[in-house]
């Protein structure tokens, strides 16, 4: 039987012991063996701290975000084989989708967050700058840097993929190397996904290691700067947290443990209401999804005392209709537990629950294409605790399977009290259409819950469900649930980052943070900042504008245009007792006037105004005052661009408006979208002519079989087709790929060197030459480009067919030619 290999110190290594046999949860057949015997854990941790930390922490947050996206795309292309393995763990298709593609989705989410909001630096400036001196010559702020250590991530058996990727999404993005330790059960699925992550080539050396099997003494080697993330039972978690190596060193420990999550049916949600039906459906789903093996599953069903019978009957019918069996069958809606060991443990907990509460539903389901003896199947079980304030077993014991307990309450106060008797939960839900009931219950139960999920008819269609943690929201809970916090958007990164206060002068803080600080030196040049591409803009680039004297007419006109007739701008007789001496200019007029002073009217790389933040008005501006603007590049934010958008970044500009007395009247930060410099040549005849002067008969192609003349005639033919001389006969790209191909014209990725021209014969031979020599071909090509330019000036709405990219308009045709020319000019070493 195949042994799962471990990935240690950059190599795949087998354990040298007997290992743990891993079985198919559906039919009992052995799948693999996990073995960690003989592994050098001390060496593994050291490798992560040195090689892994150096490689990951030196990357920028933006680049790490791009890395997550590339890995997720690579895995998504190979998802079919993961599903085939997931079925062996007893998971249905829906269960597997949550685990597999839910894991990929977490990577995609964090990639998007990074590329939208995190800096293109290896550190992250956290919060605003604090002025800690009277004259502003001494400032302070905070930066976040990756913890100088390795993260050991111990995952549970219920989500072999999501459990791993959920933790890695934040640790990798933070720049901290990780050692993944999945539960042995289902680790063959984790192993397959992990192998592909390594084979993708998108992760730097040392970023990840994998231990498939028992953890051995790995935690004995943790030290200051390391971290441990644990998902599993609270008992095991507390033992690990108290280990001398963990407790005695500055080792960060995050625990996400079992919890007795509840769902509360509102007093208003009687049978026949949408909320009653939603409640039954939600509880049924949470009992049967993953066969109840979810840390977020509903274990306590809290319902109004007069509705206990109705809920019991409706839920029993819903559970009766849930087909259990082989996950590969289309009929199956609930699979098996992960193995016989877990089955026996759930039975043990069921017996404990029976001692104090009544088992009111024990479905005797016939299995679909499966066998109770061979597999680890268990029918759903519903208990009734008729006195939940006296019988505490339901609040203390969790059977980690399709098991839940029904219990009554009288009012909102009791509902919240019962919810909190779980002593700390990952999630509690309230299903009600009564806003007052929801409001009162939710805040009263919140202190013992990591998440409160409210469901009713208004959000049901788009709801993600009680049991679904989301990357943008915190996953964790207080007390019994472990007190941990995972994900929660960018907050999830803080666990892996060291926060450091930085103090110094404005120039020093600007140099350290790469964000301009007021009072730092400004850089002036003859070139207007708005005429610079994103790559050319430097933090500190500045512009001092001419002055503009505000007039009464300005104030009146702006009032009429904006319809802002606030008395301070329009009625001089109403100013007694106000802060104004006379009618004052509108604040937004000052900001608009400032923009009029600092923008460049000439077309340039600035694409659009992207936003405005932190705008403050400090002194009134009256008619007769003269304003001047200081515009300074404050911060640059790289930006991922999709589809048919111009590759660009965001530049934040500090706008300081002063009056004739050099008093600051307004400070704001505006955001502009600034184009990145294209790596492709412009379609200017003189420029192309200059490039082609370097092309001779003896010029050799760096790839492909073209001669210099064949290359020029090929480009000339392409240009002629783009103006319909003649119109291309057909597009060879399949319709389903056409949009993707056309979108690619807008990005800055170069054309592939090995792309086969679909319009050429199978042997790749080119058409016969039509010009007598290279010089004639060069002259004809340049004339054709000039003809192309004139054609689209006269026919700006024209569209023509391209062999590869389909029907293209003027903009897309130009983008295609710029890429195509650059491709072939580089082929012959001309650029």
Structure description:
- This protein has 831 residues and is an alpha/beta fold.
- It folds into 4 domains: 3-255, Aldehyde Dehydrogenase, Chain A, domain 1 (3-Layer(aba) Sandwich), CATH 3.40.605; 262-470, Aldehyde Dehydrogenase, Chain A, domain 2, CATH 3.40.309.10; 522-675, Hotdog Thioesterase (Thiol Ester Dehydrase, Chain A), CATH 3.10.129.10; 685-828, no CATH class.
- The protein is built from 23 helices and 31 strands.
- The strands form 8 sheets. The protein has a 7-stranded mixed sheet, with helices on both faces.
- Helix 9 (274-288) links the parallel strand 13 (261-265) and strand 14.
- Helix 13 (412-420) packs parallel to helix 14, helix 19 (685-692) runs antiparallel to helix 22 (774-794) and helix 20 (708-721) runs parallel beside helix 22 (774-794).
- The longest helix is centred in the first third of the chain and has 25 residues, at 93-117.
- The protein is globular and about 90 Å long.
- The model has no long low-confidence stretch (mean pLDDT 93).
- Quaternary structure state of the chains depicted: single chain
Principal-axes shape call = globular
Number of domains: 4
| Extended strand count | 31
Largest sheet: 7 strands, mixed
List low-confidence stretches. Answer: none
Structural class from helices and strands?
alpha/beta
Helix content: 25-40%
Side by side, the strands of the main sheet go 15-16-17-14-13-18-19
Radius of gyration: 33 Å
